[in-house]
Amino acid sequence: MDHIKLDKDTITKAYARWAPVYDLVFGPVFERGRAVAIAAAERVGGRILEVGVGTGISLPDYNRTTQLCGVDISAPMLQKAAERVRALGLTNVEGLFVMDAEKLEFPDASFDVVMAQYVVTTVPNPEATLNEFARVLKPGGEIILLSRVGAELGLRRSLEKWFAPAARKLGWRTEFAFERYTTWVERNGTVYLIERRAVPPFGHFSLIRFGKNVGAERVSASKSAAG
Ligand SMILES: C[S@@+](CC[C@H](N)C(=O)[O-])C[C@H]1O[C@@H](n2cnc3c(N)ncnc32)[C@H](O)[C@@H]1O
User: Fold this and answer.
1) Is the CB of 11 under 6 A from ligand 1?
2) In Å, how far are 21, 65, 100, 126 from 40, measured between CA atoms?
3) Nearest Cα residue to atom 24 of ligand 1
């Protein structure tokens, strides 16, 4: 259940405010998680889409031969990413586009990896967003997420509930049960869970990987043919 609703207006306003200071606040704290996610993505290789690429803070951490494409709903965040790409000469970044994760403007099966670092809890409709990730992913490819998973019980759960309205104004949810992912996998029907692993800081965040079934194109084609 989504107790805390986020809308696109709140998000774009929040990240326009974050853009000038984002790297200072969220750079070092998320560094180790990013390294783990990027290593997983580069094991798959091929063409990688980073959704919610933000200021492009992760882009220099990829191998310079890794083909990357980035999208974000916030133009001020993406502007920072474009400056970084230019300053560092990241010629492996093929493009940066202002785009809504819920309506990706790419054909089906365009990417070998869809990466989203600290994004899924910030989008208004996480399940619709995950469906888009699965759609643009090639069969045999991987969705790789770094995300905060909410506590199921105890003091942390109470604190998360208490902090939820303030977090919404800052541009994310504190409550997000892992069950949402398992329910989404069942409903989507083209993907399976590969792993969930705690990553720093504080063990509140996880690396979550999904694979797309080989033959998933046939499954979705027959689903849409059946209406
Ligand atoms: C917490 S930041 C993470 C940025 C970056 N991935 C990182 O690791 O630092 C969340 C990002 O998701 C973006 N975002 C939120 N909702 C989005 C949407 N519907 N479509 C695309 N990007 C979105 C925000 O603009 C912001 O840049």
Assistant:
1) yes
2) 28, 15, 25, 22
3) 52
Contact in structure between 74 and 19 (CB atoms under 8 Å) = yes
Each residue's pLDDT tens digit, 74-115: 999 999 999 999 999 999 999 999 999 999 999 999 999 999
CB 58 within 8 A of CB 81: no
Ligand 1 within 6 A of 123 CB? yes
> Can you tell me which atom of ligand 1 is nearest the CA of 102?
19
Give the best-scoring range by mean pLDDT among 7-11, 89-93, 124-128, 151-155. 89-93
Total Cβ atoms within 10 A of residue 205: 22
Q: Which of 199, 143, 204 is nearest to 176 (CA)?
A: 204
Query: 108 or 160, which is more confident?
Result: 108
Q: Is 210 in the pocket of ligand 1 (CB under 6 A)?
A: no
pTM of the complete model? 0.88
52 lines ligand 1 (CB under 6 A): yes
Question: Ligand 1 centroid vs 200 CA: distance in angstroms?
Answer: 19
**E-strand spans in 8-101?**
47-51, 67-72, 93-98
Counting atoms of ligand 1 from 1, which one is nearest the CA of 26? Answer: 9
Q: What is the pLDDT of residue 3?
A: 46
In single-letter form, the type of residue at position 160 comes to E
